[in-house]
Write a structure and sequence with these properties.
Layout lengths: L5 H12 L3 H11 L8 H6 L4 E6 L3 H13 L3 E6 L6 H4 L1 H15 L1
Parallel strand pairs: 1-2
Amino acid sequence: QQERNKLAWTLQNSARREHNSTQLSKSYLSFCLGDMPFIEDELMKLNFPIHYICGSEDNKYVKMGKRLTYLNKNAHRYIIDNAGHNTHIEQPDLYIELLDGILLDDI
């Protein structure tokens, strides 16, 4: 990420250094995927468009998106090339172009 978008990485890195370490630790513990409830049954019931965006280098979330599209016919997975977990920072132009396309199609 640092090499792809140096300015955005620098700004994000600076903001992250200002985070309260105690609160950050609590959020990691609370939102850790290992602690998240199993919700596949609920995902299958959703009856509206679901747009799942991930970076091609974020293998864990690429697989999760694939599973989501298997579970729900309303789910659409979009993979942004040359991006990891922070697609909006690593490939901002591609990310915005994708969002524009999704929003224009849904209007």
